[in-house]
Design goal:
The protein is of the alpha+beta class. It has helices spanning 57-65, 75-88, 104-110, 130-151; strands at residues 16-21, 26-28, 40-45, 51-56, 90-93, 99-101, 114-120, 125-128. Strand 3 (40-45) and strand 4 form a beta hairpin. The relative contact order is 0.22.
Length: 153
């Protein structure tokens, strides 16, 4: 069993790469993001933007359990969130070549085909259409700069 606290650096997805999503909706996960204990991701379309989130199982579970101590939401609201979270997630197995087959219907809905951007998001990977990624970067630049100043970057 891997201790996540001691090996948190193994779960860090950082950087941005452009890859091709082939006609079978397969995309290659960069080798630096592949780990021996990681063989499955869960694909989840982001509810507010047009990108796909790829989550390791532990991160998907964390998203559900982190809500429990927050008193702003009733137990019924938490169950609804958890139900929607897990029902929208699709398992994607990492093959021996490091490829994931992404859910075709989600790729079509998000317009993901051909070139895509894989953006590291710490404990997750995001898959974007290149033009949406570029627009998002421009829109978030001022927020990033403001918080980076406060964080001492």
């Amino acid at each position: 069993m891997v201790d996540l606290a001691e090996n948190s650096e193994l779960r860090l997805f950082a950087g941005t790469l452009q890859h091709v999503l082939d006609d079978n909706h397969r995309v290659t996960v960069p080798s630096r993001w592949r780990h021996t204990e990681l063989s499955e991701f869960f694909a989840l379309p982001d509810p507010r933007r047009s990108f796909l989130v790829l989550l390791p199982a532990a991160e998907l579970q964390r998203m559900a359990t982190d809500l429990e101590p927050i008193k702003d939401y009733s137990r019924a609201q938490q169950r609804q969130y958890s139900r929607q979270l897990f029902s929208r997630a699709t398992s994607c197995i990492l093959d021996r070549q490091g490829r994931l087959v992404l859910p075709a219907e989600i790729c079509v809905d998000l317009g993901l085909r051909g070139e895509v951007v894989l953006a590291g998001g710490g404990a997750r990977i995001e898959v974007w259409k290149p033009e949406n990624w570029q627009r998002n970067c421009r829109e978030e630049e001022s927020t990033f700069a403001e918080i980076a100043d406060r964080a001492g970057l």
